[in-house]
Design brief:
The chain is mainly α. Helix content is 75%, strand content 0%. The chain has five helices and no strands. It has helices spanning 3-7, 12-29, 31-34, 38-47, 53-63. The radius of gyration is 12 Å and the shape is globular. The protein starts with a helix and ends with a helix.
Length: 64
């Protein structure tokens, strides 16, 4: 069983938690290293079906 099947696939709440962890890593823990790569990381999450478009759009509205 793949990672996303266990934790985030179809689970919008888990996907929101994943984005929260992403925010902490990129914004607080490793901003210099990860901020330039943030868009690529989000795209990889989406491409691997770890995040659904709906969750990303809701999250993007929150951070503005």
């Amino acid at each position: 069983m793949l990672f996303h099947d266990q934790f985030v696939h179809g689970n919008l709440k888990a996907q929101k938690y994943l984005l929260g962890a992403f925010e902490l890593l990129v914004g607080r823990s490793f901003p210099a290293e990860l901020m330039p790569k943030a868009a690529h990381i989000l795209k990889a999450f989406y491409d691997k079906d770890l995040l659904e478009e709906e969750v990303i759009l809701q999250w993007s509205e929150k951070v503005h």
